[in-house]
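## tool: complex_structure
## caller: assistant
## args:
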Amino acid sequence: MENIKNYHMSSEEFRKQGKQMIDWIADYYENVEKYPVLSQVKPGEITEQLPLNAPEVSESMDQIMTDVNAIIMPGITHWQSPNFFAFFPSNSSGPSVLGDLLSSGLGVQGMIWATSPACTELETRVLDWLAGMLQLPEQFKSTSTGGAVIQDTASSAALSAILAAREKKTNYQVNESGCSGNLVAYISSQTHSSLEKAIKIAGIGKNNLRLIGVDEKLAMRVDLLESAIENDLQNGLIPFFVCATVGSTSTNAIDPLIEIGNICRKYDLWMHIDAAMSGTAAICPEYRHFLDGIELADSFSFNPHKWMFTNFDCNCFFVADRSVLIKTLSILPEYLKNQATESGAVIDYRDWHIQLGRRFRSLKLWFVIRHYGVSGLRYHISEHVRIAQEFAEWVRTSADFDLVAPAPLNLVCFAHKNGNDFNRKLLETINAEGTMYFTHTVVNGNYVLRMCIGQTNTKEEHVRQAWETIQETAKKLES
Amino acid sequence: MENIKNYHMSSEEFRKQGKQMIDWIADYYENVEKYPVLSQVKPGEITEQLPLNAPEVSESMDQIMTDVNAIIMPGITHWQSPNFFAFFPSNSSGPSVLGDLLSSGLGVQGMIWATSPACTELETRVLDWLAGMLQLPEQFKSTSTGGAVIQDTASSAALSAILAAREKKTNYQVNESGCSGNLVAYISSQTHSSLEKAIKIAGIGKNNLRLIGVDEKLAMRVDLLESAIENDLQNGLIPFFVCATVGSTSTNAIDPLIEIGNICRKYDLWMHIDAAMSGTAAICPEYRHFLDGIELADSFSFNPHKWMFTNFDCNCFFVADRSVLIKTLSILPEYLKNQATESGAVIDYRDWHIQLGRRFRSLKLWFVIRHYGVSGLRYHISEHVRIAQEFAEWVRTSADFDLVAPAPLNLVCFAHKNGNDFNRKLLETINAEGTMYFTHTVVNGNYVLRMCIGQTNTKEEHVRQAWETIQETAKKLES
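## result:
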């Protein structure tokens, strides 16, 4: 006879606890502004409240949720607060949470088409939708030579782009024989740190990464790019990759895509565009021009999990020629062979990224796009930009603060006239009070404050309040 | 005045739709056995039902869920069916789905300690719990020299191990100057394909990866490993990395950890242990011996998302010396600098993996371990092994089928005596009927059937029914 002990959660219990969790989350969003945005705990404060060892016997969901409230919540920095202005946002929304819940419930692992055809085919179609929403050139659609895949983050997408570029340039010989130390990549001094990390991971080496200087708008200088390429060629090196950024993390600087693209075509280099946050803006016709030149690119990536109401993680990575990516990353062991793959009629997304396994992430993106409709998404993105531009105008007309970089979209970089130490003190004082959370960068050696406006529920009133807090705190610190 | 249009889902709507989604998932689990386990759709069948373009205006959740039921569900291969015996499982459970829902709701991005201290500190503590549950040596705990991190998949963990090994062996010079083509890595012919992929990604090159032969149990032959190392050394190459497998994907073969570990210590090579599925078994004292020798390893990874009731994705990657991993993957741009990081008192997990951004994945693991308790987890894992061993015994005593590899745990590899074409036909016929789903591998040139028993709700009755189906279908095909 079969032993019939069963520690699994019953269906009834799951229904009860699940509905309580939904209410918990709804309550959380209703009350999120009551928490200090930046967690105020000290290092180790959470750890010391957690038992040293796993429980030997089952504990109730009520016990667990009691600990969530008492131990975990004080250690949360509230990314979903409308008063979160730090880094880039990682915004979320109701339909996204529901789509993600459905994904968790179905528990599908979509590594190949056969392991859930809907996981692959919905992803392909929704990414073609996005290509249309962003007015990407035809080659980035699955119906043409390219296509797209959902990755976890822009870091992984950048690594994938570098690998494809590496293999294309060497006729797939690095995959066979390893790097030989003569490939060279180009980014600007403002490019995201994930590019340097990816260059290291790919075995290219930091010494083979050129940090091209920028102009007064902090955009890559194309003359310096070209002279660096020429210099490397003269030294017998092999230029292979350029990353252009639309909306740098530091200041939202925008590299000149057309000019960079022309250089990439001239010298046969892979052009990757990292538009992690700001790419979303291109769904609005009035901001689409920031992507002009993308027709020259080989790959492009942006994160709906930053600024398109789709909860982390959801990066969309587009390539103009999928065959290069697939040839670079494809592996087909016997235990994954199947009729559909062998027929060639299907996409197996495991060949489009680093990992083998993959979650059904297109569900949340599909839910978000359908819930909002393209017009709804455009409205909220435009609103964020409008509010950020208002904030920039307040700074511009202020006697005490200066704008320190162009603010093309939803990130405003500014500084108090009193200098670096004062600005650092101002930031730390405000963040410690908890009514808002913003972060800093350094521009031309100066400590600079960043206000990034992109959390789902951020409205004009929150930004107005933030500006008052900043002004008042500065006055207090001066007196 | 502020424009007050709002396309966000209201709190009331979220509560209503969320509770309906919970019921939808509970209903799904109650009825999961009614679906064909392997989706029966043809390539393109889902795609052609999806609109070509994104909707311009908002659609209701009712419309969306109607399409989930009508379009998506026929394209699902049911990984959460108790009749899923394919590949390795990717099992889930009620507490895991709830923990993942909480993670989605909080929407935390835990790239550094400050962006949610609880996300980092809970992860560290829960992974120390797991180290205890698995009786790992002290050095794999955060309280000693090592520690652990949740990654997405074993592929990413293997890549991280290779990178750390690469940098340690070269005194961090590949990160600086790139690969130089003389590093050599060793796996067996049975090692997971992700290792080959990672070796390519890391710029080492497939030609510098030695596939060591295996013995009659399909375990790595240590004599061949050592002679390969000696041969490479004599040729001026630099051996740096060995991956040992506990439970190969093809047949669940178990490499001799102690012997491999001794060789790694003798030649100063990084030893990584990939125990993606089978590592979970080591929480049961009776199966802990499969990890004997781990005290010699530098890194170890296993996936609670395979066989520990924690929904995808959740890989746990342990290292004996965290400083090597961090030094390999650390990047600190200005915009991520903060007091906590600079104090050195905290872990910033972005330095432990490829990506920068990260989800709050320890919540679901914490929920699972607390809901089941260690004893509950042990019970269900032991049950799966017990049932698999029964299945193996049925095969062993059958007149028509043979076991074709040892079945140390929950994977049974077997074949009908009628040969390759018959076994292929048998597999395809059964999978097309939809009452169960299993997959194949090739062993010594022979097409072999795999039954992997690890789905959360798989009970003896399901496996007994599967065996009857296999026998009856074979008889039908013979007649």
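## assistant note: The domain at 374-478 of chain B is CATH 3.90.1150.10 (Aspartate Aminotransferase, domain 1). The CA atoms of residues 10 and 455 of chain B lie 37 Å apart. Handing back to user.
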